[in-house]
Amino acid sequence: MEVCVQETKDILSGYTDKEILNTRRMTDPTMIMAMKFLGKLELGMSQIMPKSAPHVMQQIIYLSLDHGMSPVSPIGFVHLGSYMAKLGDISGGYHYVKLANSLLDKVGSRESAGEVIFIGTHVRAYVEPLQATLQYHDEGYAAAMASGD
Questions:
Q1: Which residues lie below 8 Å from residue 100, measured CB to CB, with a gap of 6+?
Q2: Is 37 helix (H, G, I), strand (E, B) or coil?
Q3: What is the pLDDT of residues 26-67, one digit of tens each?
Q4: Which residues pair with 69 in a beta bridge?
Q5: What share of the chain has pLDDT > 70, as a percent?
Q6: Amino acid 63: pLDDT
Q7: How confident is the model at residue 13 (pLDDT cuts 50, 70, 90)?
Q8: What are the C-alpha distances in Å from 132 to residues 20, 79, 125?
Q9: CA dist., res. 146 & res. 111, Å (int)
Q10: For 81-136, what is the HEC assignment?
């Protein structure tokens, strides 16, 4: 996991947050479908094969940077933040959780908001006051229910 996370951080070090947020939207329907598949695969892999799950996150981020941001792109960034926090870099992980939340607004789709907020809440609980984290968790629950998750 460490190698995969480090490789992804190295690639992202060449981009500013503003550049990531202003990356064009993904338009290729085949690529959008592949991203949706990877988004669903990420959560399952983290449960079944946790050592392989970071590779899915890495692929989501690579495809997002190469082909544009899709509604699934925030999932890759929030999982990167989660893995970084798990490896001890809580502030770095928190940075990518916040970036994933900003991407949710930027891509204009709330279909992955429930998962992004769910994963992000775990990292935010280490940085923000618990009351704010619980309010954020409730927002994620409402988003998940609205999208059918």
A1: 74, 75, 77, 78, 81, 116, 120
A2: helix
A3: 999 999 999 999 998 988 898 899 899 999 999 999 999 999
A4: 25
A5: 99
A6: 97
A7: very high
A8: 26, 20, 9
A9: 9
A10: HHHHHHCCCHHHHHHHHHHHHHHHHHHCCCCCHHHHHHHHHHHHCCCCCHHHHHHH
CA distances from 100 to 20, 49, 51 (A): 10, 23, 22
Residues in the chain: 149
CA 19, 106, 36, 56: dihedral to nearest 10 degrees?
40
Determine the residue type at 12. L
Q: How far apart are CA 125 and CA 65, in angstroms?
A: 28
Query: Which token pair is 132?
Result: 């704010």
Assign 69 to helix, strand or coil. Answer: strand
CA dihedral over 42, 54, 69, 22, signed as positive or negative: positive
Q: What three-state secondary structure class fits 7?
A: helix
Measured CA to CA, the distance from residue 73 to residue 81 in angstroms comes to: 13
**Is the pLDDT higher at 131 or at 7?**
7
For 45, the token pair is 């892999």
Residue 40 and residue 56 in contact, taking contact as beta carbons nearer than 8 Å: no
Tell me the two tokens of residue 135. 């309010």
